[in-house]
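Subject: sequence -> C-alpha cells, single chain

Hey, anyone have a minute? Need the predicted structure for the following. Not urgent.
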Amino acid sequence: MPAPPRSRRDFNLAGFRKRDNRIAAWQLFTTLVPTAVLWAMVPSLAAAPWGVRLLLLPVLALLVLFSARSFSLMHDCGHDALWASPRLNRFTGFLLGGVNAIPQYPWSRGHAFHHKHNGNWELYRGPSALLSVDKFLKLSVGEQRRYAFTRHPLMLFPGGFFYLILRPRLQLLLGVWQWASTMLRHLVMNGWRGFAELPGLTREFRSSHWYTAGEFYDLLLNNVVVLSSWWLMGRWLGYGLFWSCYATVMTFSAAIFICIFFVQHNYPGSYAHGSEGWSYFKGAIDGSSNLLLPPILNWFSADIAFHSIHHLCERIPNYRLRACHQAHAHLLAGCTYLRIQDIPACFKLILWDSQANALVSVHTALQANSQA
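Reply:
Had a minute. Here:
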C-alpha cells in the first residue's frame, strides 16, 4: 500500500482548478431547462385521467433530483468555482438560490466557515448542531431523548421543509423585528433628536440572523424573488396543486443534500478534533468521506461524492473533481469510502467525544458514563 500523503503539497491540484465557461453554461442549461419542462408537465398530468395522473410521481421524483443538482451548482458558485468570472458565479448563485428558495450569499459564507474549520468540532458542529458528550450528559433524561429524536434520520424531512421553505423567511422577519426594536428603543431613550441618528445606527446594526449588509440585501432580494415566484406559480397551477407538488419536491431534495452533507463528515473514524492540535489537511483527508454512488446519482449531485479532494481545494470545479480524484487515487486510498448501505450507521454518531476526539452514538456515551 502506498505511503499516505503528509501534506497538501503531495497533491498536484493547480491544473484541475481551471474553470470552463462552456461546461458551466452546459451544466446550467441541462439543469434549469429540464426543471422548467418538468414543471410545465405538472398541470396537464394533474388534469389527466387517474391512470395517467400517476405519471406525476416520476415527474416529482425527477424534480427532486434536479433540485438537488441545482443546489450542488449553487454550492459551486459559492466557492467561485463554476464560472471563470466571479460576477457570473455571484449572479448564477443568486439565481439558483431563488430556484432553491435559499439566500445563496449568506449560505455560502456559512459554508466557507465549515471548510475553514472542517474536523474541528470545537468550532463547527455540523448541520445538526451536535453536542459534546459532556454537555449531553448534563441534560435531563427528557432533554436527552428530545435531542436524540430531533437528530433521527426521519427528521431530515420536516427539517428539510423548514430549512428551505420556512427558515429564510423567518430569518428576514426576525432580523427586521430586531432592527425595528433596536431603533424604537433608541427613539424612546432619545426622543425626536434620535431620528437624525437612525441612518447611522442602521448602518452599524448587526442582527443575529445576518452578519453583514451584503447578507441582509441577499436575504431580502431572495425573499422578494422566492415569494413572487410562489405567487406566480400558484396563480398558474392553482395554489393547492402548486404547494402539494412544491412542498414535496423541496422537502425531499433538502433531505437528500442534508443527508449527503451529514454522512460526508459524520461517519465511523471521522477526524473529530478540538482546536488544539487541529490540522486543516487532516480535516480534509480524514474528516471527509467519499461516497460510492451510481453514476446517475453522481451526475445529479455534481460529483460532490469526491469530497476529500473538494475539501483539499474547494476552488476545483465540480466537473473536474472526478478527474482530480482519479489522478490522486494512490494518495486517497486510505480515505473513507461509504456505500449507500453504510449511511444509516452514520446517523447514530450524533455526539462529539472531546476526550477521545471521536464521534460516538448516544448509546456509547451513556454506556461509558454508567461504567465510569
